[in-house]
Description:
By secondary structure, this protein is mostly helical. The protein is 67% helix and 0% strand. It has one domain. The radius of gyration is 18 Å and the shape is elongated.
Amino acid sequence: xxxxxxxTIRLSHIxxxxxxxxxxxxxxxxxxxxRQKTLQIIQELLKEEEAVEAxxxxxxxxxxxxxxxxxxxxxxxxxxYYAEEMRRxxxxxxxxx
Length: 97
């Protein structure tokens, strides 16, 4: 998923606000340091997801038979390869209904 820098910054603020309002979380760093680390983590995860997507697209285009993007077959292969990559990374993937 591609997000603009502004959206990732906004998301980091929202996450930090939730953490601050939680009684179960105790900050040992100042709020801005936490927000910046949150932003860094979001950006790293988005880069990883882009790499996974590129790998999936590569697998689909390397099929013997040409599979057109947007087709039902392409979507099925994408979901299958995405689930495989998530399992490989140790992330459980719950498919959308």
